[in-house]
Amino acid sequence: MTTNRWIGPYQARPAAERRLFCFPYAGGNASAFWGWSAAFSRDVEVCPVQLPGRATRPFETAFQSLHELVPVLADQLDGLFDRPFAFYGHSMGALLAFELAHELRARGRTQPMALFPAAHLAPAIPHRFGIAERTDLELIAYVKRMSDQPELLDHPELLRLLLPTLRSDLSVCDSYAYQRRPKLDCAVTVFGGIADSIARVDLEAWQAETTGPFAVEMLPGRHFFLNTARDALLQSLSRRLG
Known about the structure:
Layout (H helix, E strand, L loop, with lengths): L17 E6 L20 E5 L17 H12 L7 E6 L1 H15 L7 E5 L17 H11 L9 H19 L12 E7 L6 H5 L9 E6 L5 H4 L1 H12 L1
Parallel strand pairs: 1-2, 1-3, 3-4, 4-5, 5-6
C-alpha cells in the first residue's frame, strides 16, 4: 500500500493493470469512495484522493484555488501514473480531474485513458455562485438542501468542524476560470442525477472537451447520487474500465 498522504485508505492491488483515481466533492474526503474496490475486477486498483484539511490531514491548510492545487497534486501523484489510469471526479472533483488531465498533458506526461466527471456542469459554462462568501447559517442551509445525509445537521459541533474546509472547497469552485485549450483525446463519460438541479444539457456540453468517445448517463437521485445510486454507478464504471 502506498504511503502517499494524498491517497486515502484503500485496497492495494499490486498486480492491477489499471488505476481509478477518485476525487471528492466539496467538503468531502476519501471516505466517499470506501468499498468501491469490491465492485471492480482485480485488474483495477481504486485510489481515493485525500486532499489537505480533512480526515487524515486535518491540520493541513485546504487549498482555495485550482490554480494552486492542480500542480501540487500532479507532483504528488506522479509516481502513481506508471500504468494506465482513469479519473472519476464528483462535483468539485470533476473540475479537479479535468484540470489535472490538462496539467499532465501540458507536462508531456501520460494522460488518463478515461475521464468520468459527475454532478458538475461542463467547465466552459460560467458557474460562479458565490456560495463560499455566504454566512455560516446560509452555508448550513445550502448543505441541508444538497445533502443526502440530513443527520449531519443534528450535530452542530461536527458542522462547525466541516465548515472551514467546505468553505475553502467552495472557493475553489467559485474562483474557477475556464481556459480554452486543445481538446483532450480520452473517452469521457459524464454522470448526472435525474433529480439534481444540473440540467442534462449542461452535462452534454462536456462533449466539447474531448475528441474521444463521449456519453452521458443519468442515474436516480439528486446531487449525491454516488450514495443513492451507488450500485448503478459502480456497475457502469466497472463496465467502462473493462
